[in-house]
Input
Amino acid sequence: MIALQISSMKQFMNHLLVADTFDRFDLEEAVISTANTFHIDGHINPEFYETESAGMADTPSNVVPAVLPEFRPWSELKSIAFDLIKGKRTPLFFRFTLHLSGAETTALLEREHCDVPAAQVKALVLNIRYDGATAVLTTATSYQTFLMSKEPDIIWDKYLQDYLDEKGIEYTIL
Output
């Protein structure tokens, strides 16, 4: 686990809410506090699709995947977050809990020849927390079961730093 403090909020917010920088992530949860506090639960409700698809024609636009992902992709929800945050006043607070997508997680661990099978890693997590002045990104790894190896943590921490460097997002390690 590492904590990174963002150096340029304006630049980071553009990457987070406008650019496609974080589109490879899924949203678990968002809390945004402005004039009101908004909670966005990124969990997908399978019941919504089961009842809707029962009476629908089998057209490509209406086909529901056989296995739904657990969370909605960030790319589909970031415009809602943008609408809640934009304006003359900065938010009082926000927190986003993002997961690197399952396919990206598997590819990363396999590419780095991780000694832990990708199936044992439930999620590579990125927590973004803004307190009204500064934003801090914190990494975490969620496992299916207890493991002695911390190799996925090390790979995730290094990957995130390399990715932020590649995108030109400046930060300080805390």
Summary: The chain has one domain: 3-44+71-173.
